[in-house]
Design a protein that fits this description.
Blueprint (H helix, E strand, L loop, with lengths): L2 H10 L1 H42 L3 H42 L4
């Protein structure tokens, strides 16, 4: 958006600008909540892994704990990719809606 269009937006459609800012803010808040949930999952996984390792009685128990932890991390990485794509799509959609509004 060039400066002239932005100036027009701020003088002719302040409500639209406020709605656009609120939508972007809401998207950022949701992305932050998603990220915090991810950090909590990582913490829980690490805690569970340490607990399993400390209670392991033999090499197969250790190997099983490592394998399970690795597989869950791979699943989390795949979930991160899906969340990144979904968040990116939401941001792009919000931007497209903002640019397609009349007088913008």
């Amino acid at each position: 958006m060039d400066g002239a269009k932005f100036a027009e937006l701020t003088t002719k459609q302040p409500e639209a600008l406020v709605r656009m800012q609120e939508e972007i803010y809401d998207l950022i808040e949701q992305a932050n909540r998603d990220w915090l949930a991810r950090v909590e999952k990582e913490r829980d996984l690490a805690s569970e892994f340490v607990t399993r390792l400390s209670s392991a009685k033999c090499i197969p128990d250790i190997a099983s704990a490592c394998q399970d932890s690795f597989m869950r991390r791979v699943e989390m990485i795949a979930e991160d990719g899906r969340n990144l794509l979904a968040n990116s799509q939401r941001f792009m959609s919000a931007g497209a809606r903002a640019l397609s509004r009349p007088h913008m």
